[in-house]
Design brief:
The chain is α/β, with parallel strands linked by helices. The protein folds into two domains: 3-34 and 98-301, Vaccinia Virus protein VP39 (Rossmann fold, 3-Layer(aba) Sandwich); 36-95, Sun protein, domain 3 (Alpha-Beta Plaits). The chain is 37% helix and 22% strand. It has eleven helices and twelve strands. Strands 5, 6, 7, 8, 9, 10, 11 and 12 form an eight-stranded mixed beta sheet that branches. The protein has a four-stranded antiparallel beta sheet with strand order 2-3-1-4, with helices on one face. Helix 6 (97-106) packs across helix 7 (123-131) and helix 9 (207-227) crosses helix 10. It is globular, with a radius of gyration of 19 Å. The model has no long low-confidence stretch (mean pLDDT 95).
């Protein structure tokens, strides 16, 4: 048996420990689909009307998204978009629909201090800047220098201002730092992003990798709670569908008594596909042709 077949077999066993068989079947049906291209319109530089006009002029078919005025589903290869001025000028950002949701649920406000703890390549950082019209004070952390360069490039290309970029492990930030809102889109196994058509998306998955990442997630969550101001909120999200990386990490924090779970607005559950979650009030999205598998939880520091 080839390595990628062993990887999938191991993943299937693990999923069957967490979900009913019909749900695992649904997840694997999602893995078989080819994911569509989607983009986020960058209101720091343009308007949805202008982007729609440009797409029409270039005969690129698109769909609007009911839950987000700034999102578009594109019926073309992403290389077609990357040839356009709207891409090079930073008027659009190629981003999966699921990845747009954490910043929307965070609901960042102007004149607040916001931390993005694992910020590269910058999709959520620049989205937060756009939501607040560059009026929040944003700190973006990235521990890997090469990824930090990509983050810096995107911050500049999309016109995000008031952003302090720290090439540093967010777990080691000075306790002096405190924030009104925190987005922790944690490093994870990426089990929500797997596509059977592309073995490179899943061939690195292993129990050893999962164990390593679970420890990292736990430490990042503890650091986030330490830096979050009392009474303020944070988002914990991953592009994984494994409870070990999602609900179990949140439950660990809840047991410390430092935070409470803020149920995500139920209107979200009517607009996007969801998987059953063992922690009511959290959002778990299955992988399909439109969405990467994604988990989102909102926490408030006591």
């Amino acid at each position: 048996m080839e390595q990628h077949e062993l990887t999938i077999s191991e993943l299937k066993k693990r999923l069957l420990m967490s979900y009913p068989e019909d749900v695992v079947l649904k997840i694997f049906e999602g893995y078989e689909k080819k994911r569509v291209v989607s983009l986020r319109i960058n209101r720091l530089k343009t308007t949805p009307e202008h982007i729609d006009q440009v797409l029409d002029e270039h005969h690129i078919a698109f769909e609007k998204v009911s839950w987000y005025d700034d999102a578009r589903i594109i019926h073309a290869h992403e290389s077609e978009l990357m040839k356009l001025d709207i891409f090079s000028k930073g008027e659009i950002y190629l981003q999966n629909l699921s990845s747009m949701i954490p910043a929307l649920i965070l609901d960042p406000k102007p004149k607040t201090d916001v931390l993005d703890m694992a910020a590269a390549p910058g999709g959520k950082t620049t989205q937060i800047a756009a939501i607040t019209n560059n009026l929040c004070h944003l700190t973006a952390c990235e521990t890997h220098p090469i990824r930090a360069e990509r983050l810096k490039f995107n911050i500049n290309r999309l016109g995000a201002k008031n952003v302090t970029l720290l090439i540093q492990d967010a777990r080691k930030l000075d306790p002096y730092f405190t924030f009104d809102q925190i987005l922790l889109d944690a490093p994870c196994t990426g089990t929500g992003t797997f596509e059977m058509l592309f073995p490179q998306t899943y061939q690195t998955f292993s129990t050893k990798l999962l164990d390593h990442l679970m420890l990292t997630q736990k430490e990042l969550l503890k650091a986030a709670l330490r830096m979050l101001k009392p009474g303020k909120t944070m988002i914990y999200s991953t592009c994984s569908i494994l409870p070990e990386e999602n609900e179990k990490q949140v439950e660990m924090i809840l047991k410390t008594g430092q935070a409470e779970l803020i149920p995500i607005d139920e209107s979200w559950f009517n607009q996007i596909p969801i998987l059953p979650t063992r922690l009511p009030g959290t959002l778990l999205i299955p992988p399909n042709e439109f969405f990467e598998g994604f988990f989102v939880a909102k926490l408030k520091k006591k």
